[in-house]
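Technical note accompanying the year-one report. For the benefit of new consortium partners, we illustrate the data format agreed upon in the data management plan: each record pairs a sequence with a structure-token string. No post-processing was applied to the example shown here.
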Amino acid sequence: MTAPAPGDGADGAGGGSEPDDASSTPLLGVGRIVKPHGLKGDVIVSLTTNRYERVAVGSILQAEDGRTFEIVRSSPHRGRFIVTFDRVNGIDAAEALRDTPLFAPPLEDPDALWVHDLIGSVVVDVHGIELGTVSGVEANPASDLLVLAGGGLIPLRFVTGSEPGVRVTVDIPDGLLDVT
């Protein structure tokens, strides 16, 4: 994903400011503002990540147009979050943010597999046999799935190693993929 274009933050939607140097960092989609909550400017945010630090107090999220939003309060609510952004005051400002996608820079976590690092990687088994290229990752209750360009699916629990953007090594049971 490319970084959203910088904006001027002056569209009257409330909140937001010009990004400083964030436009040079590739941003990841982390959620969206669903709707206003109450009359004071709070909003409901639905995350597309399992990293709840994205809605921690002090976190900065960015809209596609470059406006940035600093979180001053956040609490879980029915599988989503009620969020108060700095400088988003009143129902009108919150309503103007309805359905706004939210972005943030990648987190530093050497123990995590990041979807953006897996896409385009070549998948090989522990014997060095190439199985395909990762074209996507599909959510699945038991284990998220690597989606290979040829249509094959490999549960992430079989990943044994990764070189971000280059190679993913898997240890899959015999017969999981037909690689003839």
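Partners are asked to follow this layout when depositing records. Helices lie at 91-96, 115-118.
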